[in-house]
Specification:
- An 8-stranded mixed beta sheet has the order 3-2-1-4-5-8-7-6, sandwiched between helices.
- By secondary structure, it is of the alpha+beta class.
- It is globular.
- Helices cover 28% and strands 27% of the residues.
- Helix 2 packs parallel to helix 3.
Length: 236
Amino acid sequence: MQDTEQMRAEFLRIQNSLKDQLDLTDRFAPDELRTIAGVDLAYWKNGDEEYAVCCIIVIDLCTHDVIAKSRSCGKITVPYMPGFLAFRELPLVEAAAAKLAVKPDLYMFDGNGCLHPRHMGIASHASFLLNAPTIGVAKTYFRVRPDADCPEPEQTASSWCDIIVDGITYGRVLRTHDGVKPVFVSAGNHICLDTAVRLTMQLVNHESRIPIPTRLADLETHIARDELSCRNLAEI
């Protein structure tokens, strides 16, 4: 395995080369969005080796019906390094996306987009490989700086606060239901933050604080992990 510090330096170079290419404006008209894909991964270990499965669920934006799904699994070869999650997960994301029978108009990730020290969370980075607008909707807060505390929105549904550090807006803390824990929405690429939040709220139902696409992808990853972790690793 490549030396971790060498990896970090190369990953940092790639992120810095991509961040200036981000376009945080809507690349689509509102009536052009018809399908949204949720993306999530689940991990497991076998001895000292780590594996993961990526599941993508495509739904109809209006009816919320599932119209396509795919998955990809394999060994994880990049160690976990805060701020560089995309390099661990994107090979499986790209492989799962290539298997989809329907190309979605937008991808929604269980993770961050511009809510990242270099605005290059997995949702932002993935847009360059998937050639599609992306949104990050995380369940937990990722600090872009050690002293960047998380603002707290009011307890009512649709309440929000922007996450601003040194005058730069990185994302938005959004409460999707009355009194529940908030989610952390950030634009990935080719979309603005206001549209990302509007779509997130449009895709939340009474069953969860998490939008439908990523909730279904999360459920699918748990099913797939239970199945795959019991199989002969040579088959994966």
